[in-house]
Automatic annotation (TrEMBL):
Family: Belongs to the ABC transporter superfamily.
Gene3D superfamilies: abc- transporter (atp binding component) like domain (2.70.50.60), P-loop containing nucleotide triphosphate hydrolases (3.40.50.300)
Organism: Chelatococcus caeni
InterPro entries to which the protein is assigned, alphabetical: AAA+_ATPase, ABC_transporter-like_ATP-bd, ABC_transpr_TagH-like, Bact_Polysacc_Export_ATP-bd, P-loop_NTPase, Wzt_C
Residue stretches making up the ABC transporter domain: 3-252
Protein name per the record: Lipopolysaccharide transport system ATP-binding protein
Keywords attached to this entry: ATP-binding, Nucleotide-binding, Transport
Lineage, top ranks: Bacteria, Pseudomonadati, Pseudomonadota, Alphaproteobacteria, Hyphomicrobiales
Length: 458
């Protein structure tokens, strides 16, 4: 077992003002001496409550949750930089924790000096660090700045050096928080490639990120935190789905308070009919959560419902297997359960490894029509009546590599044509599947996408 977290809780005492902190230091002692019951001049904030989970050696585990859910606090407790109020943590192996920019660096030391100091803290001898120093310097790629004090570094340079130290010195357990988000795109690519390589070499990974697809593809299990409590711990795909459902519930609340029923009509529109399901913004009101969300791989308000998702060939026939270059139609059949408009019907395609290959919806087409000046009516402007059934057909080529692919489908109500604010009406995971095959003796390529390359001799 690499990491065992058992009943960990962390509480902070929050004071309204500095005087209350002084009162808490003095008055309880005085009251106790006088035989009176003590009084607290603070309120408790529980950053974590009774968190328990285990990480096997060589396993990759993600931690997800909204800001303030307790992710960073939990990582600090696991790395030993913060003591829990209750519970215990046991860690087996050398731990490298990349929790925040420049964590563990002395700002007065040069980058070179900090590399040796960090290596020593990881338990390496000076000789071992010297043997790995060139690899660290090459990965960090900060040039002559390596011999300058780290207090002169930019945030990107700090994370470059910190990450290089932690991954090149080969820890047993690597713990990574959101620090990588400040790096440029190329460096992030190198970081994630290195993390995947370390994971394949048996390094245990504990990874925190708001990027759901990265967590899904980089880890095999995940923990979802909400307001300091563990919501679920299990396969990453299931946990990410639970996280999306949680975000949906919070978006519905924000939708109601933001531009739903509470918004007053402007002078440019007619007063809202209380018997009409649509308000003046064209956005529907919110119903209580549907119990179907709790038992299936779907969620939403079900104001509009996805009834069927079909993957069809170019002629409209059911077709489970495709070859690169084939045309494909994904047909989504829906029903409006109330009068509604401002809809966006969309799909997402993922391979069996969980990598998102493509996402697209009717609003993407509406955006193009509006920007190009086309006179075609926008799907977003169409109004549907209660009980009305309709279908959306999405046509595209299939330049994909051989694999099994999952189709996710959904429908959302959009405030505008800018993807600025939305309400998920119905989202369905594993709505349909299809297989891509390849005729190896006729046309072959490697990878997940066919770039239609050609070659010539010059």
């Amino acid at each position: 077992m690499a990491i065992r977290v058992d009943g960990v809780s962390k509480v902070y005492n929050l004071y309204g003002n500095p005087r209350d902190r002084l009162k808490q230091f003095v008055y309880p002692r005085v009251r106790k001496a006088l035989g009176a019951a003590p009084r607290a001049y603070y309120r408790e904030f529980w950053a974590l409550r009774d968190i328990s989970f285990e990480v096997e050696q060589g396993e990759a585990v993600g931690i997800v949750g909204r800001n303030g859910s307790g992710k960073s606090t939990l990582l600090q407790i696991i790395t030993g930089t913060l003591a829990p109020t209750a519970g215990s943590v046991s860690v087996n192996g050398r731990v490298a924790g990349l929790l925040e920019l420049g964590a563990g660096f002395n700002p007065e030391f040069s980058g070179r000096e900090n590399v040796f100091m960090s290596g020593a803290l990881l338990g390496l001898s000076r000789r071992e660090i010297e043997e790995k120093f060139d690899d660290v310097a090459a990965f960090a790629d900060i040039g002559e700045h390596l011999d300058q004090p780290t207090k002169t570094y930019s945030s990107g340079m700090l994370v470059r050096l910190a990450f290089a130290v932690h991954v090149q010195l080969k820890p047993d357990i690597l713990i990574v928080d959101e620090a990588l988000a400040v790096g440029d795109a190329l460096f992030q690519k190198r970081c994630f490639s290195k993390i995947a390589s370390l994971r394949d070499q048996g390094v245990t990974l504990l990874f925190v990120s708001h990027d759901q697809e990265t967590v899904r593809t980089l880890t095999n299990r995940a923990l979802l935190l909400r307001e300091g409590r563990a919501v679920t711990f299990g396969p990453s795909a299931d946990v990410i789905f639970a996280y999306r459902r949680q975000l949906h519930e919070e978006e519905v609340q924000a939708f109601t308070s933001g531009f739903g029923r509470q918004r007053a009509p402007s002078a440019a529109v007619d007063p809202v009919d209380p018997n009409d399901a649509l308000n003046n913004s064209g956005v529907d009101t919110v119903d209580p959560p549907d119990p179907r969300n709790e038992v299936t791989r779907q969620f939403g308000t079900y104001d509009v419902e996805v009834r069927k998702v079909e993957v069809l060939g170019e002629g409209g026939e059911a077709k489970p297997v495709y070859y690169p270059g084939d045309r494909q139609e994904i047909r989504i059949t829906l029903v409006a359960n109330k009068k509604i408009k401002n809809l966006n019907v969309f799909i997402r395609i993922r391979n069996k490894e969980g990598v998102k290959i493509y996402s697209w919806g009717t609003m993407n087409q509406d955006q193009w029509l509006r920007s190009s000046g086309a006179q075609e009516p926008l799907f977003w402007e169409r109004q549907f009546e209660a009980g009305e059934e309709f279908s959306v057909k999405i046509h595209h080529d299939c330049p994909l590599g051989p694999n099994l692919y999952e189709v996710q489908a959904g429908v959302a109500q959009e405030k505008d044509l800018e993807y600025g604010e939305q309400k998920i009406l119905h989202w369905v995971d594993e709505a349909a599947f299809f297989t891509m095959a390849i005729k190896r003796l006729e046309y072959f390529f490697g990878g997940i996408n066919d770039l239609r390359a050609t070659a010539e001799c010059v």
